[in-house]
Structure formats: structure tokens, C-alpha cells
Amino acid sequence: MKYIKLVLIGLLMGVISTGQAQSDDKGVVIDRIIAKVDDYIVLKSELDRAYLEFLSRGELSQGNAKCQILESLVINKMMVAKAEIDSIYVLDIEVENNLDRRMSYFIQQIGSEERLEEIYNKTIEEFKADLFDQIKEQMIVQKMQGTIGEDVKVTPAEVKKFYNQIPADSLPYFSTEVTIGQIVKIPEVNENRKEEIKAQMLDFKKRIQNGEDFGQLAKKHSQDPGSAANGGELGFFKRGELAPEFEAAALSMKPGEISRPVESQFGIHLIQLIERRGNTYNSRHILIIPQPSVGDVDDAKNFLDSLRTAVVVDSMRFEVFAKEHSDDQVTAGNGGFFSDATGAMRVSVEELDPTLFFTIDTMAVGSITKPLEFRMADGTDAVRIIMYKEKVPPHQANLLQDYQKIRAATVANKRNQIMSKWFKEAQGEVYIHVEPEYENCQILIN
Known about the structure:
four-stranded antiparallel beta sheet; 446 residues; PPIase_dom_sf; Chitinase A, domain 3
């Protein structure tokens, strides 16, 4: 198959950054079906939008980029259609949770909900409604890909054979790579600050009982970007889907009742139960996320400094300390070390976060920093120590230095072969039609 490159197009930006569809003289939006897979369709607007997204990333393409993108769209619809046949589903609540995470991240990048709505002239709920079907399709495709390519394994002999089949002049050339690790500590908020927030929540509760509107207070004060704009309302959830402390409080009340302040991993909540329907319930809340004081940050620094002292004496303890104490779950499992997309614990300096790059640029290999304040990817303020373990100069790929990367390429090649076989078999189970104007693309033709 020509284009085994399944592009999950139009994450969040793909929907909100594109212009309006073309209109005729009477202002009626012009759009049409250009491909169909069973009951699932590809619209011309989808292709145009995906192509604009492709161009905005500045990617290069061999052959006709639009044809490649159209094939990717058809393949996505094909996988969704086959998922329906095979009874592989994604629950709406899973999509809602995914959307909430995406919106929270995007709001953080923009600065505020109000700024986001002002720029794009859409409410948060309108964004989520626009994105729902697209995100659900992406999640189904991802689930199908995982089902098709799961449990793919390769032996060292297969890795060596794959490597030996690559012409010498086609071996990739890797830029400077480094092995660096971190131990992260998120400062713990002191109890005095938590008590202040709880007192503020009790004041909110009293004001609501005296006639103020819960929803208006949530819009003004709640720090939950996913629900504040909706007056704090979360919608219906099943048991086990929200934080245990939140759920226990919500389900202990009658509809309309308001809880005392409830602390969870997300912050401190004031909760009102709206309605129960069997095993599901709808609630709303005001969330305030406690922020650490200067003293709290100093406590985190002192803790990391004690770890650093032990690591300077015995560097092997760095990985143990990272697994036991680091608050960054992504790197903690690797003993604190960063990894690339293949899982190799050596990363290109070109892929490093600028802050991290400039930090190690001043370090000697084998050294470890004093505790440094920084901001995590999710916006949380934290403190970390960084170990600079190894530096590998630019080089051409070889089995000795790059086994993990070559192994990952071997797995990907084997998975592609499995996917190709799956597509051939699946094509006989679904109806596929592409409009004649795209015949030259030869969609799904080997």
C-alpha cells in the first residue's frame, strides 16, 4: 500500500483555526461528499481543512499530498466502520473527558476562557460540540490501531536483519544526543493555606444558602477550566469516574444539597448534587487549587538538595530516588531519564525544551544541578534537579549506539505489514466509494 501513514488530522487547532467553508451567491454553504465508507462519509471541507493543516506544519511530501491525506481520511472512516462491525466502541463519557483535557490545555495556552471565546467567537460548549464527533472518531481509530497491532514483538535477530537490509547510504544521521534525567518535586501546600481556602468555601456556601446563585459564583471563582463557564456543572458521570473524595461527597447528598469543602488531588471543592439517575449523577462544583507559598517551595528545594548530596556520593542512587520520589510520572518510570519516541533514553538536543537545553549547555557531563524552579508541561510550578549523564556526538545510525531506535523501526515495519494485511481483508467487508475526480489518487490500491 502506498501510504501507510495514518494521519489523525485536525486535533484542536484543525477545527478552530480554519476559515469558513465556501458559500454560493446566496450565502448557502457549499460542501459535498467526496468519499464514502459504509455509512461514513468524507466531505470536501474535511479534505481542504486537513490539507491547510498539513501546509501550516510546513511538512514536505513525496507525490500528491492531497491524495495522501484523502487516503488517510478514507482509512480512518474504514477503521471506524470496521470497529462498528467488530463491536469496538468508545463511550461518550470517554470522549467528554478527552475533550475536557484538550480544552483545559488550550485555555492554558491562550490565557483564559474569556480570551479563547473572544478570539474565536465561540463558547467553550460550542467548541466541545464542534469537536465531539471528530475526537470520538480519532479515539476509535486509535483503539482499532491498538487492536490490530497489539503484541507485536521482534527478536534481536530480526532487528539485525532489518538493519542489514538498509542500504548504507540510506542509514539516518543522528545529531548530537544526550542522556539526561530529572527528579521533580511539586511543593506541597501548607495546611494553613488549605484552611484559608476551606473557610472561603464555607463563605460561598453561606452566600448560596442566603440566595446567591451557585452557577454565578462558579463562573467567577472556580479554577476548573472545563466546567467554570458552565456554572460549574460537570454533567452525568458513573460511579468510579470522578475523584473518590468528590464522588463520596456528591453521592451522600440529596439533590440541591451543598457539601462542606472537599479536598481531592485536584484541589478543594464545594459540591452541589443536581440529579441522580440510577448509577449516574450530575453535579456542579467550585474548585480552588491551592498555590504553594515561598516556604513550601523552599521545603521542596531542601528535600531535593538532600537527594542531590546522596547522588553526588553514589550516582547510581539517582534512578532509585527518581522512581521513589519524583512527581513527574513520565520520567519517574525511566529512573528519571527522558526518552524519545522509540523509548530510547537518549534524546536529540534539537528536541529538548529550550529551558532544559540552555541548562545542560552550562553543565559538564556527569554533573547534577542544584534544585531549580520550573514549570511543568501542565502548568504546575515545581522544583527539580537535573543529571547530565552522557553526550553522544553526531553519527550515522549503527546497532551498537542506536539499537533501541533500530528495534523501534523494526517493530513499526512489522506492524505496517500486519496493517497492510488487515486493510486488504477489511476492504472486502466494507463498501468504499471515492468520487471520480479523485480516481487518479488510486486510493487503497497497492
